[in-house]
User: Fold this.
Amino acid sequence: MELINALAQQYAEKYTSPEDELLKEIADYTYNHHAHSHMLSGHLQGKVLEMISCMIRPKRVLEVGTFTGYSALCLAKGLTEDGELHTIELREDDGARAKAYFDRSIFKEKIILHIGNALEIVDELNESWDLVFIDADKENYSNYFHRIFPQVKPGGFILADKRKECQGHSAIQ
Ligand SMILES: C[S@@+](CC[C@H](N)C(=O)[O-])C[C@H]1O[C@@H](n2cnc3c(N)ncnc32)[C@H](O)[C@@H]1O
Assistant:
């Protein structure tokens, strides 16, 4: 099922604000060198994540599925001055690459990367979330939802990426 009309997507891609240099570098690297580049949020979805985060102004953000770090850097843009974003990645090589990008960004001190299985790590994080982005391990989405829901502040938000592997279009619900 097509969730986003192709013409609407093209229109939004044409007129959305430009990508930062660092995000462009991450996207270029990922599309050119990563075997699973289709997993990247990309420009338009990244802008949607940034917009939502800037509207919420979260103090604590949780991301499940760091990959090469693109969406974490988009979500970090809305963080409060004392805000933190925790992001969890299973694969060490992707985590290391993401960390190198985080360290070059203005969010170096605000993004905390956890390497390991998010299903275990989410229970160990003693935080209350304003905004959660679930974007990994699709078959466990309902498990993540039920575990994370009690940790979300009243009025907080959970976003879940609905992409199927290898599909070009994506949607956030
Ligand atoms: C769709 S990608 C994330 C894309 C990223 N959020 C972005 O927009 O650029 C999913 C990532 O989750 C990771 N992953 C898969 N299962 C996981 C798990 N159980 N715990 C943590 N990370 C996992 C994968 O290694 C992959 O890097």
Notes: Confidence is low (pLDDT under 50) at residues 165-170. Residues 39-41, 65, 67, 70-71, 88-91, 94, 117-119, 135-137 surround S-adenosylmethionine (CB under 6 Å).
